[in-house]
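Case study 2.
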Amino acid sequence: MSENHWIDIGKVTGVFGLRGWVKVYSYTAPRESILDYGSWFLCFQNEYIRYDVEDGERQGKGVVAKLATVDKRENAAKLVGIRIVINHDQLQPLARGEYYWFDLVGLAVITVANKMLGNVDYLVETGGNDVLVVKGERERLIPFVQGRYIKKVDLEGGRIIVDWDPEF
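Prediction:
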């Protein structure tokens, strides 16, 4: 399977207890949502090995999980530092007008007057709304407010049309 189909959702950061549980740093929000995927793929030097998630819970600021076939602390220790990924097909479908952030990263950002501003480098959550960080001849921060600033998201065409002053 192509690398483009894999989505990083966390990494194994340590061991927890004696029975093979692992500590996980989750990239999901909320953090414990990482447990909602019935199986994870752990990336060992570009080889993806499937592990079923048997159990798990939020533990302080992190998450702990019990993976099938990992029954000893020594086996869990071998997983420390390994990326946790899922296949794109494991994601829940979104409602119309909703997007996963990773789908927006890399898209060209063009004004309604057809001026290229750059490409989405990453997004930032601000509490009020998400913000596109667009890098071109300079960096721009554009609020991801559909209708007001975001006029069209064209995933197939690889672009976002915005109502944004290029001088701002």
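The chain has two domains: 3-90, 101-162.
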